[in-house]
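Re: Re: ligand-bound prediction request (bumping)

Still looking for help on this. To restate: I need the protein modeled with NDP bound, output as structure tokens. Inputs repeated here so nobody has to scroll up.
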Amino acid sequence: MAGMLAGKTALITGGWRGIGGATALLFAQEGAKVAVADLSKDNAAETVARINAAGGQAISLAGDVTNTADVAAMVEATVAAFGRLDCAFNNAGIAPHQVNQSRRRTHEWDEDGFDQLVAVDLKSVWLCMRAELQQMLKQGSGTIVNTASVAGLIGLRTACAYVASKHGVIGLTKTAALEYAEDNIRVNAVCPGYITTDMTRTSYEQRGDAMMSMVPAKRMGTAHEIAEMVCWLCSDRASFVTGAAYNVDGGYVAS
Ligand code: NDP
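Reply:
Sorry for the wait, this slipped through. Here it is.
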């Protein structure tokens, strides 16, 4: 398929739904061969079926991004299927409510919830990058995009571990960008604002007006709008872009 990513191969974590799902579809539409990874292979296969139905090429992979062996296996399976790994989108993540820490100020979080969230939202990004970089160094090039958040740039009340993790993702991104710039490997982050996905559904239903009052564009973004940025960052059109964290947030951080 012709397109911005023609001839490239990609691995996308959290590729079943939300931002990862939309990015997998756009990558395939733009010509990439895509390995769609998620916790459940059946769920990843749903995205793959949509890609294949549209004439793209994809495989489904199962694995937990917090598990070192699973992460290594995802990279290995991508290379086994497609020959190389050009683009990696480290996107899988969870929100405070998914570790039962909704609406808790910093002193109210429990240690298990904090650890679980940091494992998925921060440590996994390092685990994924570590495995991906080893392959990209072997082949002599690559691009990585990590999903941070506006919460990687500012504080957000009742989200201490999430905010700390997303700030950490930007730190990992900048460090890797410096370390691998001369190896022809670019590393960037995307910082979504409020995006309509399953992750934000309940909070939008409960306090959508308050959320939108903080967004100059006065609306939620779509997963596709994040995918567009990730696609550009992974494409050769962004050949001089590395170590950056791009907001896609309807003006949230600027306000
Ligand atoms: P979704 O909940 O829609 O999708 C998250 C995906 O990640 C799911 O497919 C989920 O699989 C997968 N996932 C979660 N934990 C793991 C794990 N341990 N191993 C492998 N896969 C896992 O969320 P979004 O699309 O909204 O979020 C994607 C990323 O964007 C996250 O990093 C999030 O923090 C970030 N983000 C989202 C914003 C938003 O407003 N939606 C704003 C800013 C950042 P399963 O469902 O099977 O658990």
